Model the fold of this input.
Amino acid sequence: MDFEVPSEVRERLADVREWGKAAVRPAGLEADRNGAPLPVDHPYFVSCLERGEGCTRWPGIGRKARPSQPGATVRTLLLAEELAYWDRGVIIASPGPGLPEGNVLSMGTDEQRERFLGPFLEPDRPRWACFAMTEPGAGSDAAAIRTVARRDGSHWILHGAKCFIGNASRADWILVQATLDPEKGRSAQRAFFVENGTPGLGPFKIEKKMGLKAYESTSFGLEEVRVPDSHLLGGEARYERSAGFKTAMATFNAGRPVIAANAVGIGRAALDEAVAFAREHDRVEDPRVRDRIETMARRLKLARLVCLRAGWLADRQRANIVEASMSKALAAQVGQEATALGMELLGLVGGRGDHLIEKLYRDVKAMDIVEGTGQIQRMIVARQLVGLPRDRG
Ligand SMILES: Cc1cc2nc3c(=O)[nH]c(=O)nc-3n(C[C@H](O)[C@H](O)[C@H](O)COP(=O)(O)OP(=O)(O)OC[C@H]3O[C@@H](n4cnc5c(N)ncnc54)[C@H](O)[C@@H]3O)c2cc1C
Done:
């Protein structure tokens, strides 16, 4: 592995650092203080658009996609770490086609890309999209979802409920994972575009969260929601056996090292705050304090290397399933350890609940939950190590 960060990436990281300090962290602290997501009309979102963010990677009809640059995944991971350093909740709150964009790019028809990604080419206002898999009875076991889709002439009717879906109430459209037959498991799953305002979609309930308060995690119902045939992602012809489930899992696989990088970023912020606190309070002469700081730094560096290794393999189109899952399992744990060690160092100050490390301590927990919990990642790695298939079938 080459450890040199190209100068173009270093410049981009420096830009993110400035932006993070000036805009991202203040927005995150504001949301945390208010205990509520940043409102849709928050000036932060407008400034994202002014910076050219919130857009799709899709080039538009008849335009060729820019060839992906060498090292693109590692670059993404370095940026994901730096952004999360400033505020991971604000990053997820930021406008854009978000999690489902990859699925629409890889699986969508030309018409679907135009209709659903087109408005993100030059967004006239902050716009969001989101991906809804999790249900009250189906989290880790995503194959167990119960939201059903049934055909009705040239339409589909969706019925069910989703929970903890990021940015759902403000999304222009939600890519909803549903099943044609709950008894048939993964092969019967399909993804549907459901536009905001479609009758039967809602009500939206923003959930209470311990951290990452800047973005909304929302539950909603789908009460006999009617969508046209053209809203089935990729169209029926694209669905071979089990492709429906694989589509969703493709999103998750790509995301795991990014979540790992986020966890490292949050942990690194805790480390910097811990060092600053120790200096300010004349604690650096205490070997117990230095020991905590050393543990945080060493473990974070280790997690970062495993994470970058997962990205390095992806950039070479080499299988990275073990490294991707390992990086998430490890980094989420290390991020939690780092923030916990930071809390120990704060002592009573941490208990007051108004120090940044205390916020980071609450924020980082979700890195162990989203897109496959730590246990699930470890199960995936273990199955690979003994030669069993990734999923239970
Ligand atoms: C902040 C936040 C944001 C989220 N955003 C989204 C989103 O945008 N879209 C979306 O679809 N979902 C989202 N989710 C949901 C998330 O993906 C689920 O919470 C996650 O998959 C875990 O599911 P669960 O909470 O139902 O836990 P469960 O699956 O019930 O698991 C509970 C515990 O049991 C363990 N466990 C479960 N199965 C096994 C097993 N087979 N072996 C060993 N241990 C096991 C788990 O590791 C966990 O510790 C979000 C969740 C959070 C907290």
About this structure: The two ends are 34 Å apart (CA to CA). The chain has a mean pLDDT of 93.
